[in-house]
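Hi support team,

I'm opening this ticket because the web form for multi-chain structure prediction keeps timing out on my end. I have pasted the exact lines I submitted so you can reproduce it. The total is 455 residues across two entries, so I didn't expect it to be a heavy job. Is there a limit I'm missing, or should I split the entries? Thanks in advance, R.K.
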Amino acid sequence: MMNVKRSGILLIEDNRNDETLTCRVLRANHMTDITVKRDGSEALDYLFAQGAFEGRDVMDQPVVVLLDLNLPKIGGLEVLQEIRADHRTALLAVVIMTSSQEEADMLGSYENGANSYVIKPVEFKEFSEHVKQLGLYWMLTNKAPGQVTP
Amino acid sequence: MLLPPGHEGDVDEMLNRIIHGVRVEHHDAVRRSSTGENLDVSISMSPILDQHGNLVGASKVVRDITERKRAEVALAEARDAAEASSHAFEAFSYSVAHDLRAPLRAIDGFSQALRDEFAQVLDETGLDYLERVCGSAQQMAGLIDGLLSLARVTHREFTSTNVDLSMLVTSVADRLRNQSPERVVQVIVHPGLSAPGDETLLANALENLLSNAWKFTRDQPQARIEFGSDKDGYFVRDNGAGFNTAFSAKLFGVFQRLHTAEEFEGTGIGLATVQRIIRRHGGQIWAESTVGNGATFHFTLSERS
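Hello R.K., no limit was hit. The queue was backed up. Here is the completed structure from your submission:
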């Protein structure tokens, strides 16, 4: 764990509109180091430096992962399970960001070790307030082991 | 009445009981009729004793319960079908909730982005159009939420407990106060009112009734909302805008509204939801009002009143 360097945000989101809106809010609040992956399989390859991302330093990790549940190929819950199961990523902060208000999804997320569960509000004003708050909290207020201070 | 092959054992067992002076009550068995048809029957047997307590005979009643059995099978099938449709509904509402919400967020979000970044190249008309786009997206979000909640009310499993209605009303009133602290509203809750019912459903119904009262007393400088019970059952009374009782038949219909969106905003789903909840409790709901003099919603939670 000692050699992990944490910086930036990993956004795992397949909806291009939500991606653009989320990034727009984060950037407006000076969080510009954002990596986007658009399905669960690509996200896991990226995190574990495998497949298309072979050669990437696996110790370079995000400070926080914003994870959508409804993802193509490999769903959000499975991504979360993989992250928790691997000792290299087990301590990653994972925030579930979803439209789902279903109790089952919420329970499943926490049972698999999500650090937070956020329902994306329909109203953009509310949505941007949520994204801003959680971005600032995980990037500035909260401290993670190996976090690089900007 | 004949004994079909393979059913000899239960006769021995019944006779054995009778010999020991024990009655047989409603023993479900299969017997063959004179036409050779197997029938589902219910057999009751009692020993007949003389004055000294000696067994001298037995009385036996065999009741044809084929119809009842058939009804039981039909009931089980209907239950399975209902369960399947309920699961299909769950899947449907799940996808409605997710898939309809995402594009709405995009409509609202990108309109907002346009306003933020391109306000200088838009004139007043352009900004007004954007406003309408956002307003409509929000209205549609409200409709989706309302329809989902209406559908859930019908499909939700019913769990009966003793529900503290006074407490539910008080907590709804507290929440409404927090949402609009600028409003001065006197809320009177008769204490200690409780009834058997499904707590989640009743909370939903009371939330709708109270929110309505809250909304329609908006222009009343001395707004007053009361929850209590009388000889007709329970009531929620307000001194707000009221409505014309000529249209009261429409009051509980889905998407039916008695006020224009300019007068009072709303989706026309709230009271339809309330009515379904009350009916699931076996009760009734009706309303009294005169325009400008408030409204009273009466409801019962069982057929007693």
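A quick check on our side: The interface with chain B takes residues 15, 17-18, 21, 24, 70, 99-102, 120-125, 127-128 of chain A (CB under 8 Å). Let us know if the file doesn't open in your viewer.
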